[in-house]
Amino acid sequence: MRFFEFKITESKGIFGRVPDKDQYLHTDGRTAIFKGIVSRPDPADGGGQFESKEQRDEDIATFEKNNNAKITWTNVPGNNLAYAVAIVQTSENQTEYWGRYFRMMKVSMISAWANKDIPVGWKLQTSGATKMDRGLEPQSLIKTPRQFSGTEDIINTVKSNARDEDKEVLAQALVDSSQGKMAVFPGQKEIETAIRDYFGEIMGPVAMMGGAVLGQAEDARNELAGGADWKDCKVIWPQGMNEPLIDSKFFAPNGNTIGISSKGGVGASASIVNLYNGLLRIADESADGTYKGKNPEHEKFIKDNQVAVDVIRTIQKNTAKKGPFELGVQFGICTPALFEEATRYQEAGKVEFEGMSDEATKIVGNTKFNTKVIGFNVGNAITAALVKEVGNHVNNKTNFSTAALALLNNASIIQLYTKTKLQGDDVVVTNYNAVYPPKFEGKIGLDGGKNYYSTRIGGKFSFKFLK
């Protein structure tokens, strides 16, 4: 059965929107559909910043002239030396250009442009965005990847970043959690799922530090943290999407890092980092890129799952641009020459399919591309098409899923579930369920759909739990 999914999850911001699918609603009743996004300068071309503000502004002027466009900016330019433009088409058949300035463009900008940071009156129409609107996720309430050394610092940070109407409720919930109590959110029944699914990512670790999470969390504390109390560990909330399976991390005094997955189950995304770290827990990596299991059982696992191990290593060790081609060569899907060809087209800005090699023509022939979308590039299209072919092969013709699950379930991860109920108009936290060792279930598919487009390359392969 083929179970490769080429899709984007909902909570990745403007850079993660799906062209010709994701829609916006205006307060005046108009709708709009997302058509694409342009990053300037393109990091794939080797540059993440313009040399000066003047050069940046000249590029903007050229973009507006070439596209007969007037950009609606969502922030001020300041000293930022890069920018991005999201293109949407309204229900009145008008094309709008929404712009945002950035300090620099990186290969992966997923989550860098929040869904809420768009022109006044517009709102993203997805179920995930509805929950995000309340601003209860760590990206809104923590806003920093720095380490926290205690619950007081966390509480003060959340209180300073929360909406005025939420400050006291959220702060009191964290105070109660830090004291080992189950938090109550008076009159908040309308946002129960946002409290559970988003604020739970912050509240859960605080509850662990307050001694409210026992059971298998204690097993993890003794095995991974050397018996140190959670309150004596430092904690961070990653602000990017490099490790989407991990919502927070504890750093124990013994030097170990313990990931907390506050979602878990079907639908979660895992990055190469999660699987690679699981691999390093059971095997030693040699200089030539081979792995030797740390005991006979682990050695047998490496031998039985060599293909999956090679896939993980190839993605981890190569760039987002080259990794798919290395895998393509490994599985006989393409030759090394295809990477050189795609790279030439990326650098030259080729926008027409004519004049390609037979190999490139065959690869792109299996995927439909809109060559008129802003930022289209034949080199990126070849890469995106190859990503799809590689994903189909890995997911349907190898034992990748079985091996990936085993590695995730061997990782230093605690699955932490926040349980809530309604009590009248109040949301009440009833308990926390910690699972360690983790028990991820289902099928995992190699997923490139959220990072590889005909207009850009946004990051490496990730891994998707499939229903």
SSE topology:
Blueprint: E1 23-26, E2 31-40, H1 53-66, E3 71-73, E4 82-90, E5 95-102, E6 122-124, H2 127-132, H3 138-141, H4 151-161, H5 167-178, E7 184-185, H6 192-209, H7 216-224, E8 234-236, E9 248-251, E10 257-261, E11 269-270, H8 272-282, E12 283-285, E13 291-293, H9 296-304, H10 306-317, H11 323-330, H12 336-348, H13 358-364, H14 378-397, H15 400-408, E14 413-423, E15 426-435, E16 443-447, E17 462-466
Parallel strand pairs: 3-5, 10-14
Antiparallel strand pairs: 1-2, 1-6, 2-4, 4-5, 7-15, 8-9, 9-10, 11-17, 12-13, 14-15, 16-17
Helix pairs in contact: 4-5, 5-6, 8-10, 10-11, 10-15, 11-14, 12-14
In short:
The chain is of the alpha+beta class and 467 residues long. The chain contains 15 helices and 17 strands.
Tell me about this structure:
The chain has 467 residues and is of the alpha+beta class. It has 3 domains: 14-132, no CATH class; 138-256 and 412-436, no CATH class; 274-408 and 444-466, no CATH class. It is built from 15 helices and 17 strands. The strands form 4 sheets. Strands 3-5-4-2-1-6 form a 6-stranded mixed β-sheet, with helices on one face. A 6-stranded mixed β-sheet has the order 7-15-14-10-9-8. Helix 8 packs across helix 10 and helix 12 packs antiparallel against helix 14 (378-397). The radius of gyration is 23 Å and the shape is globular. The two termini are 13 Å apart.
